[in-house]
Design brief:
The structure is a single chain. The chain is an alpha/beta fold. The chain is about 45% helix and about 10% strand. It is built from 20 helices and 15 strands. The strands form 3 sheets. Strands 9-10-15-11-12-14-13 form a 7-stranded mixed β-sheet, sandwiched between helices. Strands 1-5-2-3-4 form a 5-stranded mixed β-sheet. Helix 14 packs across helix 16 and helix 16 packs across helix 17. The longest helix has about 35 residues. The protein is globular.
Length: about 575
């Protein structure tokens, strides 16, 4: 956005003293040491989550308020138009630098540290008050975007809206409110009405607001607040996939059509209100009504965000399989595939289950075709089997064993009964059953930052009480959501140590519920992934499809381990 506020802008650009302080600290130590020091300081200012209050700073900067995946679509569309974009989101998965993106790329550690220490030193010099964690990170975002002279800044609201640290912008160009659900109830309230009123706090007089179809209680609240402020509230329909011309959205899942439709409306509003829409698109009235400009299509298709409906084929296993085939000439089709989604509410868990079920079915069909190609190449077969029933028959003959595995953790603030029930029931409705479940603690957490290269910690000192509770909940969900009893230990075999590698080999049987209920509690993500690789490595025909969900911290730990 072009009209950045002059007060903060001048203070940032003219303060040589602040910049000198930052340079002095950076000069005293290496970049890596400085980065660890910054993470330690951030960890030290994290306080327990409580209800929001009205205290806070006010920076007269114009920005745009959105939420969730919609932010990613908006940034990608406007970047495709050629604008210099700044995107601020939370939380991060691996590196705190992920929260700050310039032109679609996360900022470098060097750039982050420069702005981090400038802000930290200035606050310490000029204020005796405690520094609040999320407010400070938001201040760093303002500093980065101002320094980098972005054309448009997209801010994802952290918690709620009314008292959120991002809600200091007096006159944003446009506001967006995505689908509302029961999340952060300990802060925002126990009813959808209370939550909606907090979210509606980002509305500003004279600023258009766009939202998606909402539950009736939430819709009524949004309409009331918009009426009080005399601002137009526009309800946007989901994007028609046909407008993409046969291409797919960059973010997977049917629900992303809702977010994409909202993103299109927000971008149109921003382009129109900043005087750019007619310059780029003479057909502006037709946008979203069966027509999308090439830049909109490109932005929607190229949008990307880690940890949301993401599929990763483990490269370690793929390399090992390839080496075995080359050395021994044996057909080795073992695979380890991770399906990552940071769902952590009942609503998002339902969406995650639908995406996973769909991905499993598509992946199975693709895998069948791949196996036929392998057979043609190695055995000289010339017949191409296109009939899907024949392909399924081929898989049975090859004795390929595909297992759907759940790797799960959630915070103690969540209700695991609600989350797991929603996940299991939705998957069953779509024809997918989990063969095994694994519960593992997260290394990273809300109260402690870890380095992007840190995955190792002492697993012998980890408290697994919560994970054992999750395991009992899982077994009761599978049994039909009966009450937990003192005889739960008799439900079936559990493992709290490293299970044997034949853990996945027995077939679940409805006649033998003990086999069906096998689950495990493991002490760390790195050990879990190492063990999964060993299990796949000892079989020439085991295919593990692992859904990782329940916690963004867990998603980050898995990504960090896989990228080592």
């Amino acid at each position: 956005m072009n009209n950045l506020g002059s007060n903060l802008d001048n203070e940032i650009n003219n303060s040589e003293e602040g910049n000198a302080g930052a340079r002095e600290i950076l000069d005293e130590s290496s970049s890596s040491t400085s980065y660890v020091a910054a993470l330690n300081l951030l960890s030290s200012i994290i306080t327990p989550r409580t209800c929001a209050d009205e205290t806070g700073n006010n920076f007269p900067i114009m920005y745009e308020y959105l939420k969730g995946s919609t932010c990613t679509f908006v940034e990608s569309i406007l970047r495709a138009y050629g604008f210099r974009t700044g995107l601020y989101t939370s939380p991060h998965l691996i590196s705190i630098c992920e929260r700050y993106r310039l032109d679609g790329l996360k900022v470098s550690e060097e750039k982050f540290l420069n702005h981090f220490w400038w802000c930290w030193n200035r606050l310490k010099e000029n204020s005796m008050e405690d520094i609040h964690f999320f407010r400070f990170l938001t201040l760093v975002a303002f500093k980065i975007f101002t320094e980098e002279k972005v054309d448009v800044a997209i801010l994802e609201v952290g918690l709620g809206g009314k008292f959120d640290a991002t809600n200091v912008v007096n006159s944003p160009v446009v506001c967006g409110i995505s689908s509302l659900g029961y999340d952060h109830m300990e802060i925002l309230g126990n009813t959808l009405t209370q939550i909606a009123r907090e979210k509606a706090g980002i509305m500003k007089p004279g600023v258009p607001v766009f939202t998606v179809p909402q539950p009736e209680d939430a819709r009524r609240v949004l309409e009331d607040v918009a009426s009080e402020l005399l601002v137009p509230l526009h309800v946007v329909s989901p994007l028609d996939p046909a407008t993409l011309g046969g291409l797919n959205l960059g973010l997977a899942g049917d629900h992303q059509c809702i977010n994409a439709g909202l993103a299109v409306a927000l971008c149109c509003s921003w382009l129109r209100r900043t005087g750019h829409l007619e310059e780029f698109n003479p057909q502006e009235s037709a946008i979203g009504e069966g027509y999308l400009p090439d830049s909109f299509v490109k932005g929607l298709v190229m949008a990307n965000i880690e940890g949301r409906a993401q599929i990763i084929h483990d490269s370690y296993v793929k390399q090992r399989v390839q080496c075995n085939m080359e050395e021994a000439g044996n057909a080795d089709f073992s695979e380890l595939i991770f399906y990552l989604d940071g769902a952590h509410t009942p609503e998002s868990m339902d969406t995650c289950a639908k995406w996973f079920s769909s991905a499993i079915k598509m992946d199975t069909k693709s895998h069948v075709q791949t196996r036929e190609i392998h057979k043609e190449t190695q055995n000289g077969f010339t017949e191409f089997i296109s009939n899907f029933d024949h392909q399924q028959h081929s898989i049975k003959n090859s004795k390929m064993s595909s297992k759907q595995v759940l790797l799960f953790n959630c915070s103690s603030e969540r209700d695991p009964q609600l989350l797991l029930s929603q996940l299991v029931n939705t998957c069953i409705l779509h024809g997918v059953n989990f063969n095994r479940a694994i519960f593992v603690p997260s290394h990273s957490s809300f109260t402690q930052f870890v380095s992007s290269t840190s995955t190792r910690h002492d697993s012998t000192k980890v408290d697994l009480t919560w994970q054992l509770s999750l395991q009992r909940t899982w077994e009761n969900v599978i049994c039909g959501c009966r009450e937990i009893t003192k005889n739960d230990q008799e439900i079936g075999p559990r493992f709290s140590a490293m299970p044997p590698c034949d853990f996945f080999l027995s077939e679940p049987s409805m006649e033998n519920t003990k086999d069906h209920l096998i689950s495990a509690v493991l002490p760390s993500v790195p050990l879990t992934i190492k063990w999964l690789r060993e299990c796949v490595g000892q079989s020439h025909s085991l295919r593990l499809q692992v859904l990782v969900t329940g916690s963004l911290h867990l998603i980050g730990d898995v990504l960090r381990t896989l990228k080592e």
